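Troubleshooting: if your tokenizer reports a length mismatch, compare your output against this known-good record of 212 residues.
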Amino acid sequence: MHIPDGFLTGEAAALGAVTAGVGIAVCLRRAAQTGRERDLPVAGLAAAFFLVGDAPMVPITIGTQGHLLGGTLAVALLGPWLGALTISVVCALQALVLGDGGITTLGLTITNLALVPALVGYPLLLALRRLTSLPLAAGITAAVNVLLAAAIFVAEVTLGAASAVDKTALAASTMGAYAIIACIEATITALIVRSLLGVRPDLVRVRRLVPT
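Known-good structure output:
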């Protein structure tokens, strides 16, 4: 899901940087307005957890790998704004320190992995929560977020590729791999949310059913 440097044109990378910059600015402002001080230690622990949880990677096409995303769990625990910022920090650390993905394409990575769960996944999670249990709602939302992020990734690489790519092979390999990952992430997210609701429900911010 992380796009290496050199895969995309300068225009595509610049568009991603602008999108991520605007999104992060909005998240920072809203997090400052709605954030709780007790969420900050949780955000730090969550970032460390996601760094470790995203580490197992399986190559799925040239230069890219399949891995867990974690965005749905982040917004469920921290709300959409702090959750997105937490995943953004994880993406930056992966690119700058671990070499996972490119620096020039970091904006697109943040858009896919942090902003999609916050702006699309969180409203979906709130809607589903009114129809079913929170763990199941979180699991379904996780699967949707993974597949949506994968589809956006395919579109970005297809439309913004610096050189010709096999569009059919890219779409098939990416969406096929992430269909499996979506099922795994849905299960893990649902189990973690269910466990936390049993022992520390105060850590699951979305349980209040109030958009933040």
